[in-house]
Amino acid sequence: MSHVVIQHTSEPNLNTIASRPFGIRDKLGYLFGDFGNDFFFILVSSFLMVYYTDIFKIHPATIGLVFLIARLWDAFADVVWGRFIDTRKAGIQGKFRPWIFRMSFPLVLSGILMFVKIPGMSDGFYMAYAFVTYLVWGTLYSTVNIPYGSMASVITSVSVERTALSTYRTMGANLAGLIINVVGPLILFVNNKADSNRFMLAAILFGILSISCYMACYKLSNERITIPETQAKKLHLGTTLNGLRKNRPLISILIASLVFMMLSMLVGAVNVYLFKNYFGSASMLSLAGFIQTLAVFIAIPFVKSLVNKFGKKEVAAAGMLLSSVVYLALYFFPHVSALQFVIISAIGMFGFAFFNLVVWAFVTDVIDYQEYVTGLREDGTVYAIYSFARKVGQALAGGIGGFAIGSVGYDAARSVQTKEALDGIYTLATLIPGIVYLLIFFIIVFLYPLNKQRTNQLAVYLTEKRLESGRKG
């Protein structure tokens, strides 16, 4: 993407480790990282609530409170772990890769334990078990995801290559989503009902796939960049927070990502009830997952040319507007079949796919802007702050999802839900996304300042500054 490229062979503020050149091996390694992450992340976001309501028999509002507390804890764990990682010295295998290797095993084990049901226990026990296992899984997820996300900044220092990593990361997430959303419902539900043994089987299967992907990420990725000790000593949280206060691009993209993540988690939870109860076919979730994920892969070839021509901000905003129109149309035309809903909503997913595909490149730009504000490169810490916002979004979405499903009158004890509950579920799945996508459109257009021209200016400024610093050094 020519307008975001900062062409240089070395950066004075960074040390480059001699190694093989950046290439497809790194891209695939980074793809496998989010592939592994999302085997459990999507399983949890899409199906854990229905597991708790239909198998543990926990009220949706109570689950919402559990999700809210746990995700807020996770948000702070992200920042703490990010700062901890920043204080560690890089070893022979790098600074971030070893943590992926070490922590992925306990992470996957904790994910499997979430879907274990010990028969014959009390409601209080199931409530406590759900809270503890979910909290432990979320905390361990931070110990893998923070080094994984931060690692992009040390795989390469060239912006166009970081953008490639962003695209491959999104591809990895969508491949996991394809498998979970297509295969998951076929495994998890028996005669349109959630089955405890099937959930356990799925957790073990996806756990094996997840750990395999983490090992592929560890083996294929290569860290090339390390922060000099002189710069590392200058990194202070106060400097970072002061830069954050002045970093309007970062603040606006944090808000947009927080809102987007809230909606994604909400829709992922609601869609299970939408197809299982409103349309009466949980198996349709598989077709929905396949067609909607296909829409994302259709968008991928268009990203580079559209961004080159119009800019990331402009393309992401247009995609959000398209998604908003599609979901609002679905709300005003409620008497569609399940298949019609899947096909039409896929157009909306095609729209917001453009935001999803460039969001990590947005993060690269706002990290560049942080360097412009503070004069220091703080990739790991800024990524942790960005992840903090996403976790807050997940926390609020988990709470809102549970409260929303409960508020429309869903009752797991009823074999057939009331018309009011079904209509409420459909509203949650259509009107709310339509409004929120429109809100994100306005945030990108009116709050995010780095359009194509300003991004180019920032790249030129930082390049000249680094070259001047190099001459002085």
TrEMBL record:
It is a multi-pass membrane protein. The keyword Transport applies. Gene3D superfamilies: MFS general substrate transporter like domains. It is found in: Cell membrane. The keyword Phosphoprotein does not apply. NCBIfam families: gph. This is GPH family glycoside/pentoside/hexuronide:cation symporter. It comes from Paenibacillus aceris.
